[in-house]
Every structure is written in C-alpha cells, then in structure tokens.
Design goal:
There is one protein chain. By secondary structure, the chain is an all-alpha fold. It has a single domain, classed as 434 Repressor (Amino-terminal Domain), CATH 1.10.260. 55% of the residues lie in helices and 0% in strands. It has helices at residues 3-9, 12-22, 26-33, 42-50, 58-64. The protein is elongated, with a radius of gyration of 14 Å. It starts with a helix and ends in a 13-residue tail after the last helix.
Length: 77
C-alpha cells in the first residue's frame, strides 16, 4: 500500500497513534509526510515503515519521498 493511501485510511484515533509511534506531531504527518513536502530523516523513514505494522513497505516509503535508485537506461541511437 502506498504511504499516502495508508495515511488516508487511518481514522482520527489511528492517525494520532501512528504519529505518536513515529514520534512526530499529527499535523506534521498530515501535511509534510502525506504530501512529501519535506525531506525525511533516515530515522523517520524507518519509523514510518516499522510503525505501519506491515501496512507500508520500506520501498513504498522511499518511493513516496522520491528516494529511489534509478538505473540509467542505455538506448541505442
């Protein structure tokens, strides 16, 4: 599941709990994490993955923030 979808599916109580487990404010989760408007720390990336309890993978969190390794493609001319 994509991180934004995971956050959208949380009710208010679950959202507050998830933010608390990640050690961030609920408002920071709703604004900066959900919309990837700030670069996350490594510890936050790990927390978002771990505290989703299997809901979101590390790869999905990295993709959400645009932190993915891309392999250059060689195209023949």
């Amino acid at each position: 599941m994509k991180l934004r979808d995971y956050i959208d599916h949380l009710d208010s109580k679950a959202l507050t709990a998830y933010a608390g487990r990640c050690r961030i404010a609920e408002s920071y989760l709703r604004l900066h994490v959900k919309y990837a408007s700030k670069d996350p720390s490594v510890s936050l990336i790990k927390s978002l993955t771990r505290e989703s309890e299997g809901g979101v993978s590390l790869t999905e969190v990295l993709e959400h923030f645009g932190i993915t390794e891309t392999t250059p493609t060689n195209k023949a001319a």
